[in-house]
Each structure stands twice: as structure tokens, then as C-alpha cells.
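This follows on from our talk about sequence and fold. I would like you to pick a protein and set down its sequence and fold. Go ahead and set the record down below:
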Amino acid sequence: MAAHEIRNRILRYLGLFLALLLLNAAIAHFHYSELLNKVGEIKLFLLILFGACAISIRWTKKNFNNFYLSAFLLSIGVKMLASLVYLWPVLTGDWVEKEIIALVFMVNYLIYLNFFVWDIVKE
């Protein structure tokens, strides 16, 4: 993978990250101020998770084309398991608005998932 391709992919994910961060921060500010701290954490977690999966799938496609589909399916499982591990303490803990935190996480997860699939399929 060329350096400019990695840079372009990182810039696309950072652009999505910043747009969603601003949108989520504005919504959180008006509805639930405690969510402001959690929004940044959720966004950073999803950025790292989906960015790492996208780069690893692209690398697998370039170097081991026979295992491209396996890497894609493995990334789906890794993302679901990592999301469950991330949300588990929130859902079982004493958070005031844990349903709102889970909803914000899942909406952002689905947006990142759509972007991820579009990014992978486009190549």
C-alpha cells in the first residue's frame, strides 16, 4: 500500500471523525451534558477500531488476496466483540443515562460501518 493511499484513508476517517464529533457534541450539549465526555471517548474508540480494520483489510487484499474475504469477515467479528467489551461496563454500571450512551454508540457505530463498507467496496 502506497504512502499516499494510507494518508488518504486516514484523512477520510479523520474527516468523518471530526464531522460526527461536532454533531454529537452539539446534540449532547443540549440534551445531556455529562455525555460530552463520553462522546469523545466513543468517537476515538470507533475511529481506531474501524481505521485499524480498514487498513488491515487493505493490507491483506494487497499481500494475501486469497484471504481477503476471511479478513473482512474476521474484522466484522472483531468489531462486534470489541464493541460489546466497550459497552459492557456502561450497560452494567451505574451510569445515569446508560441507554442514551448506548444509543449514541450504536448510531455512530452504524455510521462508521456504512462508511467502512463503502470504503472497502469502492476499491
Notes: The chain has a mean pLDDT of 83. The chain is about 90% helix and 0% strand. The first helix runs from residue 3 to 31. The CA atoms of residues 20 and 101 lie 15 Å apart.
